[in-house]
């Protein structure tokens, strides 16, 4: 009996610790702070962002593509010293990260995705990411998406798209590897900035500092 109780305690402690050890990234911007939680089921893309955050890579990069009711995008390696009006979006780090697309991770409002070009294998940029702003979708619109793409949504996913919104037409084509847990109001402010014909904000909106948040471990004692 003692062994059983001890085993249960160990398992419960591990579960509680693992829950508290999610990778969280704090993005400090000109407009305020955004906190994103990275998913465990996308280890390649999650670990890549963790690496770049620890190297302070993102510091001083800008959100170079901002579209209301769609997304804000940033992380271009050439954006730190970009001239006003310069077209951005081509900067990278010389490698791509394999796609980790699955049915569980979808483009709900606040989703964190990997930007990419027309890579046949859907691998994504090593540095550029986007955050979904999105808009609500009706049942009819969701039905049409399913007919067109063949993607089937759970009842819970459909409800999220109807109530909170997102960009479901991106599902299945881009890797979603996290979500905003604090600061969606900041994302909205950035998305609604005046912009040029290439969707670059007229005013540079920088990621002043991007850092990993310290993990907190919680243990249960009897």
Automatic annotation (TrEMBL):
Give the Enzyme Commission number: 5.2.1.8
Supply the alphabetized keyword list: Isomerase, Rotamase, Signal
Task: Report the top EC class in one word.
Answer: isomerase
For this UniProt entry, the molecular function terms from Gene Ontology, in alphabetical order, are: peptidyl-prolyl cis-trans isomerase activity
Where does the signal sequence lie?
1-20
> Which SUPFAM superfamilies does the protein's record reference?
Cyclophilin-like (SSF50891)
Spell out the InterPro entries in the cross-references: Cyclophilin-like_dom_sf (IPR029000), Cyclophilin-type_PPIase (IPR024936), Cyclophilin-type_PPIase_dom (IPR002130), Cyclophilin_A-like (IPR044666)
Q: Which residues form the PPIase cyclophilin-type domain?
A: 28-212
Out of the domains of life, which is the source?
Bacteria
Function text: PPIases accelerate the folding of proteins. It catalyzes the cis-trans isomerization of proline imidic peptide bonds in oligopeptides.
Instruction: Return the similarity comment.
Output: Belongs to the cyclophilin-type PPIase family.
Protein name (Swiss-Prot/TrEMBL) = peptidylprolyl isomerase
Tell me which species this is from: Flavipsychrobacter stenotrophus
């Amino acid at each position: 009996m003692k062994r059983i109780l001890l085993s249960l305690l160990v398992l419960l402690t591990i579960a509680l610790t693992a829950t508290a050890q999610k990778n969280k990234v704090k993005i400090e911007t000109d407009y305020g702070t955004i906190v994103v939680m990275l998913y465990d089921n996308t280890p390649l893309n999650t670990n890549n962002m963790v690496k770049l955050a620890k190297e302070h890579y993102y510091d001083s990069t800008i959100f170079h593509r901002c579209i209301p009711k769609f997304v804000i995008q940033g992380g271009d390696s050439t954006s730190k010293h970009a001239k006003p009006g310069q077209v951005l979006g081509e900067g990278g780090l010389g490698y791509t990260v394999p796609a980790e697309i699955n049915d569980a991770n979808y483009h709900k409002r606040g989703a964190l995705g990997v930007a990419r070009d027309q890579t046949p294998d859907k691998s994504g940029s090593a540095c550029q990411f986007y955050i979904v702003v999105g808009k609500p979708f009706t049942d009819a619109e969701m039905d049409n998406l399913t007919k067109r793409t063949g993607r089937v949504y759970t009842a819970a996913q459909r409800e999220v798209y109807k109530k909170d919104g997102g960009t479901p037409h991106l599902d299945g084509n881009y890797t979603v590897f996290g979500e905003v847990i604090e600061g969606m109001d900041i994302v909205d402010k950035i998305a609604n900035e005046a912009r040029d014909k290439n969707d670059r904000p007229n005013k540079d909106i920088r990621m002043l500092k991007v850092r990993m948040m310290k993990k907190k471990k919680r243990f249960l004692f009897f």
